[in-house]
Every structure is written in C-alpha cells, then in structure tokens.
Amino acid sequence: MYPFDYHRPTTLAEAQALSAAASEAQWLAGGMTLLPALKLRLAAPSVLIDLAGLDDLNGIGLVDNGVTIGAMTVHREVAESGQIRTAIPALAALAGGIGDVQVRNRGTLGGSASNNDPAADYPAAILGLNATITTTRRQIVADEFFTGLFETVLANDEIIHHISFPVPELAAYVKFSNPASRYAIVGVMVAKQGEDVRVAVTGAGACVFRAPELEQALAADFTPDALTGIEFGSVELNEDLHASAEYRAHLITVLTRRAVEAALGR
Fold this sequence. Notes:
Blueprint: E1 5-7, H1 12-21, E2 25-28, H2 34-39, E3 47-50, E4 60-62, E5 66-70, H3 75-80, H4 82-87, H5 89-96, H6 101-106, H7 109-115, H8 122-128, E6 132-135, E7 139-141, H9 142-145, E8 146-148, E9 151-152, E10 160-166, E11 170-177, E12 184-193, E13 196-202, E14 209-210, H10 212-220, H11 245-263
C-alpha cells in the first residue's frame, strides 16, 4: 500500500469536513473493493475516511409502502431482515446470494451501489425495483444513477445516505454466478408493479442496464411464454474466460424466464 491518513468520523458533518480539507480523499464503506485495490497499489488516496462510525447511515425501515435501507447496512442484515423478507423477498434473497459469509458481513449496500461493479448484484436490485438513492445532497432515481463501468452520477464528496425500494407486486432475482466469487456472470431482476414491468440485467455489460424488449413483452403478458422467440443481441455485451458475449445474450433470456417463473411462484 501507499501511505495515507486514516480517519473514522462519528458524524456526517465531520466526514464532509475531512473530505473538503483533503485533496485526494476516499470514502471507505465495507472495503470489499477498495482494500484489495490499495493492497495492489491500484488506488492511492491521500486520506481514507471510514464511514463505519456513522450511525445515521445504518438501519432498515418500512416507509410509505417501501423499504428504506441505510447505506452502511451490510448484506447479511438485508438478507436476514424480517421486514425485507416480508415486503420484498426478492431483495433479501439477492443479498443472501452475494459473495461468501465474510463478504456479506462486511460489504454494504451503499458501497456496492457507489462502486457499480459491472458484475455486482445490488445494481440490478436498485434499477429493477426502481429505487431512489438519497445522498447528502439530493435524491436520485435509479434510471439516472448508473452511468458506466464503475461510474455513477455521485460527486467525489457526495455520500449515499440511504436507498428506498418500493414494494413491488411481484419480483424475483436469478443469476448465473461465478462459482468462486459468486459475482454474476449474468443476473436478472424482474419486477412488476401494476402495468409497469422492469427487467434489470447485471454482469452482461459494462454497466447494469434495462432490457426494454423483454419489459414490453412481459408488460403485455407477465408469463414465461411471453418471452418465447425473443433473442437478445450480443452486441456490446461482455466477453471473457467465463462466457462469450453470445452465451451471455442467451443467459439473459433464460434467466429472465426463470425470474418470471420464480416471481409467479412456479
């Protein structure tokens, strides 16, 4: 690692003041991506600001027919929350399938959203469930939050405070995971709310994205059969040692079908 100054503030105001005073400050949430990057000398912040001491960023609650989750809430808490299992079981199941036990006990919702890893699970939940991201500056709708590979609309000194997920009528998340890391080679979140259907895909491209053609078919008929004959194009999809672009395109339709079946309880 390169040398850096470490701070663990206890209030948001203190955290923001530390960030404003530093030229190259970096927020530390669960550290699942940042710490390995520091060890490999791929990142070299002058100041590391640990958000673990900010109680305001923790917690789960039900508000206005939705679930609100603090940014520093770890994956295990989401997976085990009775409130989330009742309101949005697909979200609890998704959190329970992230990484391994150690990752689920350290990784956070806000850290995952801010990092926007192309193979992470939470971006699919945020986009698929049409969540709203509340930061220290503003509220951001899911469709405007993720912008590209490891990129979001967040400013360098902006912190996610909490994320609000509306309770869907039906929803399910299915992924084809890497057997070692459990990252999504392809993951699909399908959610239905009245006539609105959202299909969010992670792992397949440089950034999580929606699949309008699949959404339109399911909006007309929310059954697996509605997807018969639809072939997802492989242009601009990821290709690596785990799967070709063509295979990922095939997985998108297969996993969307399975997600619809799961949402319908089949």
